[in-house]
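Researcher: I'd like a candidate sequence for this fold, 631 residues long. If you have to choose between options at a position, lean toward the conservative one.
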């Protein structure tokens, strides 16, 4: 190590380029510089040893530094503008990391007293140098939401906080009565210029009538217009409360193919009717129109034309500041609708199925966590009346039409051939149970690694009871088999979590360097695996990752803090993915899960690093809890 003289203007200019120094007042920055020394380390030289009494916050002026936890395990590689050494200063204990110069390296080193003074006097400085990665990550998610709302010009969050009450138009609700003649109702709708008429018995909502109902149920069937509304209304309509999040209402409308939602209070009194246009005006998105077009598609080409609008809808949702969970749920809703409509079209061509069955999906679609560019993972579950010799020819044709249609609609053929076109994924309920039983009772590492996707399943069409029964059986069986759980935990813990970024390269835990970061495979999948393992261990009914994390916390399998922190990491990583896909779409490129780490902002890079450390620690704990620590 050699010391160099300080050029105050040069140091000031450099530090002002990086957080948290950019946020310091002039006097605070001057304090940092007065307490600063410049040190030079040759390549390969140890800067700080694990266990040393570290006295400095070190900021890399040039060069690169590798941090090795305990002196052995790669923790991170840092480059210009990044800093290290602060955890031991905050804890007032020995350094946990060995720091080694990877290249000839110049450091700005601020002594401990000045560092602690800056933390005491600057909230931004204190928040930046927080030794709890999870706390930093949660603050990052909060900051991200505020930034998104600000860029979209919104005063309230559409993702989590804003409810239907914020967009209810405060005016008298136009309503009819069950005994009102149809003609009077039609006149009332025309006079008030409304396309939907709620029907109330006193203050209680009992039905709803739309323009479409008048055309299809009255005019088309030549019903006497003096008949009461009760004969043609839709009874017991879907209702929501005013505190439902706006985006939850969007998902409900898209899923049910409806365009009006009656809003009732706690006493079931009608207080408003909200339309899809009200939500679209708030979101600035064509999201609901896609769901409508998919649901009413007359052929495969119509389905693919509708799903081709999804990228544009994604850009609208991202631009509106919508959170990643709602975007994923929306994309999944469209995916489910495409599966159902294509299956209906195929059945219309082939005739009714010869035996009861269910279309089941696996993986991200089942978890309601799809992004753009997903492939298809699906299967058929037949009732035990299925006879392969007599019936499979029909389902083989049905499968081919379905999978071809999905591919045309942008849901690629599964590279692993997990599709209904593969006879292995057309089974009776008992055959599926026996298949899962084999995995659970005689687990093999490679088979388990390839089979985890099947433990995320959802019925999309047909006899949902077949899927529900299968899920109950396999989750109960899995939760009782400790050996199987150990294999599942080991499979999850083999994930190679990135530990840091170094210039343009992604660093893996085995020190290999890759040219891209796979957000799905290296950041999202490990959290999905963690949540799935806890769900299986506790026989939790949930499929969605966030719901599984909450369930694991309630079951005591995960601590409240761990569940909350993993949820924050999951949200942050998925938000980075959707923003990346939005940029790709805007630039005319097909959306993917992979990105060049060099394109990440410093904010994203640093907090992804926090997410990776959090994921790694939870994978280590999972291995210890369920896999006996043996890997």
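Model: Candidate sequence:
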């Amino acid at each position: 190590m050699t010391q160099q003289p300080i050029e105050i203007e040069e140091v000031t200019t450099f530090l002002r380029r990086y957080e948290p120094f950019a946020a310091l007042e002039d006097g605070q920055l001057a304090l940092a510089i007065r307490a600063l020394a410049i040190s030079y380390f040759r390549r390969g030289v140890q800067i700080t040893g694990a266990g040393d009494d570290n006295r400095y916050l070190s900021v890399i002026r040039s060069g690169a530094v590798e941090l090795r936890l305990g002196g052995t395990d790669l923790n991170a590689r840092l480059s210009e503008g990044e800093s290290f050494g602060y955890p031991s200063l905050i804890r007032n204990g020995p350094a946990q990391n060995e720091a080694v110069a990877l290249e000839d390296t110049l450091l700005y080193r601020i002594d401990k007293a000045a560092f602690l003074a800056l933390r005491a006097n600057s909230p931004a400085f204190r928040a930046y140098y927080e030794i709890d990665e999870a706390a930093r990550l949660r603050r990052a998610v909060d900051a991200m939401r505020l930034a998104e709302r600000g860029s979209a010009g919104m005063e309230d969050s559409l993702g989590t906080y804003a409810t239907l009450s914020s967009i209810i138009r405060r005016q008298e609700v136009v309503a009819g009565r069950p005994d009102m003649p149809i003609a009077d109702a039609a006149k009332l709708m025309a006079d008030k210029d409304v396309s939907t008429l709620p029907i109330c018995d006193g203050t209680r909502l009992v039905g709803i009538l739309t323009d479409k109902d008048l055309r299809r149920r009255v005019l088309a069937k030549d019903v006497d217009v003096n008949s009461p509304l009760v004969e043609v209304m839709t009874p017991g309509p879907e209702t929501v409360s005013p505190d439902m999040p706006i985006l939850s209402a969007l998902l409900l409308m898209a899923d049910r193919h409806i365009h009006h939602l009656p809003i009732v209070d706690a006493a079931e009194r009608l207080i408003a009717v909200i339309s899809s246009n009200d939500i679209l005006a708030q979101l600035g998105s064509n999201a609901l129109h896609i769901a409508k077009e998919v649901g009413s598609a007359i052929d495969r080409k119509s389905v693919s034309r509708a799903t081709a609008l999804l990228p544009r809808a994604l850009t609208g949702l991202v631009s509106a500041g919508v959170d990643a969970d709602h975007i994923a749920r929306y994309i999944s809703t469209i995916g489910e609708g495409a599966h159902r409509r294509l299956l209906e079209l195929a059945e219309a061509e082939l005739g009714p199925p010869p035996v009861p069955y269910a279309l089941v999906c696996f993986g991200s679609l089942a978890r309601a966590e799809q992004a753009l560019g997903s492939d298809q993972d699906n299967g058929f579950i037949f009732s035990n009346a299925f006879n392969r010799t007599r019936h499979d020819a029909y389902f083989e044709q049905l499968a081919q039409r379905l999978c071809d249609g999905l591919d045309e609609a942008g849901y690629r053929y599964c590279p692993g051939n997990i599709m209904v076109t593969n006879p292995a994924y057309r089974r009776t309920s008992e055959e599926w149970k026996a298949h899962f039983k084999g995995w659970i009772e005689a687990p093999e590492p490679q088979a388990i690694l390839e089979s985890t996707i099947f433990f995320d399943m959802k019925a999309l069409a047909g006899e949902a009871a077949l899927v529900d029964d299968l899920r109950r059986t396999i989750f109960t069986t899995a939760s009782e088999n400790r050996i199987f759980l150990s294999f599942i935990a080991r499979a999850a813990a083999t994930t190679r979590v990135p530990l840091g970024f170094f210039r343009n390269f992604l660093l893996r835990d085995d020190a290999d360097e890759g040219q891209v970061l796979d957000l799905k495979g290296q950041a999202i999948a490990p959290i999905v695996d963690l949540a799935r393992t806890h769900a299986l261990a506790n026989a939790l009914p949930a499929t969605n990752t966030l719901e599984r994390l909450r369930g694991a916390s309630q079951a005591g399998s995960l601590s409240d803090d761990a569940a909350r922190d993993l949820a924050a990491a999951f949200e942050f990583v998925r938000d980075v993915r959707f923003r990346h896909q939005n940029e790709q779409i805007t630039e005319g490129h097909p959306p993917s899960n992979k990105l060049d780490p060099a394109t990440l902002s410093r904010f994203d890079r640093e907090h992804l690093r926090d997410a990776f450390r959090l994921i790694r620690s939870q994978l280590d704990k999972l291995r210890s809890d369920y896999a006996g620590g043996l890997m």
